[in-house]
Amino acid sequence: MSAILELEGITRLYKKGESEVHALDGINLSIEKGEFTAIVGPSGSGKTTLLNIIGCLDTPSSGVVRYNGSPLGAMKDDERAAYRKEHISFIFQSYNLIPVLTVRENVELPLVIEGRFSKTEIRKKAEEVLAAVGLKGLEDRFPRELSGGQEQRVAIARALVKDPYIVLADEPTANLDSHMAEEIVDLMRNINKSLMATFIFSTHDPLVQQHARRVITIRDGVIHTDEQRGV
Amino acid sequence: MKGRKERTAWSTLATIAWRNVWRHGKRTALTIITMTFGLGLYIGMDSILKGMDRMGLENMMELSDASVKITTRAYDEEAQSFPLDYGLSRMPELKAFLRQDPRVLAISERLRCIGQLSNGQDALPVQLIAIDSETDDQVFSLAKYRTGESLASGGDKPAILLGKKLAQELGLEIGSWVTLSARTRYDAQNAQDFMVAALLDTPDPTINNNVYISFASAESFLDLEGLRTELVVRMQKRINLKDAMKDSDELAAKVNQAFPDLAAKSFGEIGREFLELSKAKSKGTGMIIFIMMIIAGVGIANTVLMSVYSRVREIGVLRSFGLTSRDISRLFLLEGGLIGFVGSLAGLLFGIALDAYFIFWGLPLDAMMGTIDMGLPLGGNLYGEWNPDQMLTAMVFGILVALFASRSPAKRAGKLEVTNALRFV
């Protein structure tokens, strides 16, 4: 399999008063297409910064990120937005659904912004993906009318609706109980297998880590271990 | 196809903006109420001011200055003191010239001077107007507001027509006897007793303080020997005041060209001072509304800014979906614009309701002002006027204020660092 993502010598410095903090310090990493990778490590180890850089939400202080062999550095704001729009999907710990939109409208939103499909196609795709995550019948509810697990399912449906090449998830199960967390990870794993979408997620949860095919441990901005598993 | 998809994206963003506008309903409602009152009152005030302009000019034309008033140039220069030194000559030639214009309906003669009216106990200075009692009613509409006999009815007693306000001040009524004194053409003081034949109660408070006598009485009282200082002309009625002003302006210009020694003035020209005053009032009202709109603008800026800070994470999510910082700014600008649109629309409807009240029921000026004389030719019921141009301007202004006020918070929303906004939690 070919690498969809390559990171070479990635560093990210933050200024904190007079001193500089190395959030990431010389990360070298290659992610294959269709991987189901967990990034683990203690709080402040650099997991979120790494996901931000892969998702083009942040820029590295030095180093190169290659997506399908093309470097992502030196892109303008519009180009970065276009990259996120077309290739990346995000799942957030706090779900971050748009509170004024219904479940269906939340799921349709990435496709509407992408502007590739007609209104009818968007509606069809949203219904398919909502059915896949077990939310059929809840399409017209607002986020405030859902449980935490249902909200995260909507967030997953929203991330998957545009058939992304890469799904980035930061602590996707942190706000869920263990039973619900297991269900969500199972759902992500099934989608990963069926759609061959590349999943990269950060987690603290050992239960969730068990489902990952690859577990990368980060400490103090440096990759500590990189373990392949035959799950 | 691309255009339709872009429309879909914008309709979804507009949905987000619209629902967010009502997410903090009380805050939005307060801003909208401020705009509604600001714009509504502006539209209502504009209607009343337009009504004042029309009423003032109509009163001048109908009650005091006719469509066109002609005097000698020398008289015009000293018109404030109503001199009896500059009589009109070549009257038949001038009248024949005027009658050539088919729009001229009637011509009459007048003369003004200052006098004093006494009831035997008190005396008041008055403006004394000598009229041709046969033709004056063809030029002016004073008959509509007259109670009692016309001066033309030719009673054997010397009679005057008296403004009702003046009559009230001196405790006079129809049939009362008064003493009128004035300087004659040859500057001799003369006094004579007159009977009050009729009272005038017009919508022009100035006229309600005047004294009218017929030329038949004035000839001997003022030693006129045929002296006439004013020729007043009535032109055909036009529905639109602007057309009437245009007609009288044209006729006045024609007279001035043909008779260089005469000063012909249209009622619009005479009313210029009144219109200037009205413009100044309009500016004052505009200023008040401007201040109200600034308050509304601050409200909108605050609403949008609060919205930005309460939705930082949402901004991050939208950025992660691929919206640019420009798109985010536009989204918040749209929210401000929507508040402005709703506020302006509500203001427009409120303004239309106020206009309707002013137009169909009017403002009872006499009841409101009592005995206060503003020195303006206004009285009775003041009716407003529709002014669609101004309504549209007010609405566009409201929306522009809202967009301008939202600009800065919207820009701030666009500039938020996406990682800070999102915090990826």
Description:
The complex is a heterodimer of chains A (231) and B (425). By secondary structure, chain A is α/β, with parallel strands linked by helices. Chain A has a single domain, classed as Rossmann fold (3-Layer(aba) Sandwich), CATH 3.40.50.300. Chain A contains 7 helices and 10 strands. In chain A, strands 6-7-8-3-9-10 form a 6-stranded mixed sheet, with helices on both faces. In chain A, strands 2-1-4-5 form a 4-stranded antiparallel sheet. In chain A, a hairpin with a 2-residue loop joins strand 9 and strand 10. Chain A is globular. Chain A starts with a strand and ends with a strand. The mean pLDDT of chain A is 88. Chain B has 425 residues and is α+β, with helices and mostly antiparallel strands. Chain B folds into 2 domains: 205 residues, no CATH class; 202 residues, no CATH class. Chain B is built from 15 helices and 12 strands. In chain B, the strands form 2 sheets. Chain B has a 6-stranded mixed barrel. A two-stranded antiparallel ribbon of chain B has the order 11-12. Chain B is elongated and about 100 Å long. Classes of the chains: A alpha/beta (231), B alpha+beta (425). Chains A and B meet through helix 1, helix 2 and helix 3 of A and helix 1, helix 11 and helix 15 of B.
What percent of residues of chain A adopt helix (DSSP H or I)? 25-40%
Shape of chain A: globular
Name the strands of the widest sheet of chain B in spatial order: 2-3-8-5-7-6
CATH architecture of chain A: 3-Layer(aba) Sandwich
Computed CA radius of gyration of chain B, to the nearest angstrom: 32 Å
| Helix/strand structural class of chain B | alpha+beta
Tally of helical segments of chain B: 15
Portion of residues in beta strands of chain A equals: 25-35%
CATH fold node name of chain A: Rossmann fold
**Stretches with pLDDT under 50, minimum 5 residues of chain B:** none
